Amino acid sequence: MSTATQDVINLRDQVKGLECKLAKAEKASLVDSTGSVVFTGENSFVALRSDDSAEDNTLCAHWRAVYSPEGAGTVLFIQSKECTDGQVKIYSDNPKLVRFIQKEFEILMRPQFAKQEDLVIPAMFERAGSTSSGGEYSEIIRHEDEEICLSWSDMVMKPFLIRFEVGGVFADHGVYSNIMPAGKAVVKRQIKGAEAIIASGECYDSDMAGHPSRSSCLALGETWLKRDSATADNDHATQP
Predict the structure, then answer these.
(1) CA 46 from centroid of its chain's CA atoms
(2) Is 16 part of any domain?
(3) Per the domain annotation, does 26 fall within a domain?
(4) Looking at the 3D structure of the chain, how many domains does it have?
(5) pLDDT at residue 22 above 80?
(6) How far apart are the first and last CA of the chain?
(7) Is 5 a domain residue?
(8) 219, 204, 195: which is closest to 57 by C-alpha?
(9) What's the pLDDT band for 132 if we cut at 50, 70, 90?
(10) Chain centroid, CA 153 distance in Å
(11) How many C-beta neighbours within 10 Å does residue 102 have?
(12) Which residues constitute the domain of residue 179?
């Protein structure tokens, strides 16, 4: 075998080796290995304020877990000048899920909802309506003779996907979610035998990591990751 022939064979083997490595790299890039999945579900929210105010009159965070270490369930955190007299109220069908969400996620985004000592009110949950651009979508929460309804409508802005990798925005967490901004949002509380209370204010223009958005959005297909403890220990060990 001539030297030239051997060189061709060697070059061909090198190309095959590179192709194999590229194929493995492409497959690996399809899997996020920066952390473990700790939540999959939804985290829609409402924030309303008056034109002359720099603070929200009403803030709601609605969570629906399909998967979590504490199982499935639904949670509503609400603080409203009119609907709760400015107090934080928590409704859920899974109290353990509430405590998990508080210590893992709400402490990062809405600390007023993260107090572990706050009472959890047992409730039933259902949804209604449509997420189409001309429709209205609602989450309904019921406790004894009380009903709270959160509604989102005027979905005129194009939905967008957020991709916050672990360590990018939050030190030990990452989140992927489909965000659907709402042009209008309404929060209503109804107690049997009394007149319905409707939260004042309107949703307003906002942004999410620099992307135009609204203060009230549906967040569907949401998945949270958490940095593995072993990875976190290694990262801290390598820091100067």
Answers:
(1) 12
(2) no
(3) no
(4) 1
(5) no
(6) 55
(7) no
(8) 204
(9) confident
(10) 19
(11) 21
(12) 36-238
